[in-house]
Amino acid sequence: MTRRALIVRGGWDGHHPIAATDMFVPFLEQNGFEVAIEETNEVYADAERMAGVDLVVQAVTMSSISDDALRGLRAAVEAGTGLAGWHGGIADSYRNSSDYLQLVGGQFATHPGRHPDDRPGDERDNYLDHTVGITELGRGHEITAGIDDFTLHTEQYWVLHDDLIDVLATTTHPTQEYHPWHRPIVSPAVWTRLWGRGRVFVATPGHTPEILADPNVRTIVERGLLWAARTP
C-alpha cells in the first residue's frame, strides 16, 4: 500500500531546507511513500489534499502561517496525519502562532553560545560540544531503542515545552560564568506527542545537513518519520 508524504519546506535559508529535506526523500520512497514537495505552507489549507496525506515533514524555519493554513494543519493531524521534523524547521516555526506551538509542544527559545572570547563571528558562535542523552522512556521506544547517549558539536537547543510531550532524549545546558542562569537546564532533544488521532515527532538536532548525516541523528529522524506517519 502506497502512503503519501508531503514535505513543506522554506523559511530561513540558514537551515538548508532544500538540501536537508532532499536527504530523506529516497528513504521515504524506499519505505513505500509517494513524496510530494511544496515550497509554501498554504497547502495546509487544502482540506481535500490534506485528507490524503499520511505524513507531513515540516521544514520551515521562522516565517509565518495563515489562519486557514494553520487550521488545516491542525485538523489534518487531529484526523490522523503524522507531523514530523527536526531543528528549526519544526521547533522554530511560526513564532507568532500560539496554536501551532500548542500542536508541536515545544518551541526554540535560544541556543547558548561559546565564551565571548571564543566566538569567530559567524554561526559557529553557537556551536558547542554537548551530549544528547537517551531517557529511560527512550531506551524502550522504537525511535531511539538501541541508541546510546551521543555527543554533537553544533547548536544546542534550549526548548520551552509542556507536559504533554513524551521525551525520548534530553540535553543539558550547564551553568557558565558568561551566562545568566544559575543552575543547569535540561531541555528535550527528541520527543513525541499524540494529538487527536495523529502523531507528532520532533528532533532538535539538525542545524546542517552534516549534522543530519550523523548516524545517530539520521537514525532517529528516519525512525521518527516512520513512527509519526499514519498507520495503514
Automatic annotation (TrEMBL):
Highest taxon in the source lineage: Bacteria
Q: Where is the ThuA-like domain?
A: 4-228
InterPro entries reported for this sequence: Class_I_gatase-like, ThuA-like
PANTHER family in the record: GALACTOSE-BINDING DOMAIN-LIKE SUPERFAMILY PROTEIN, SECRETED GLYCOSYL HYDROLASE
User: This chain belongs to which protein, by name?
Assistant: ThuA domain-containing protein
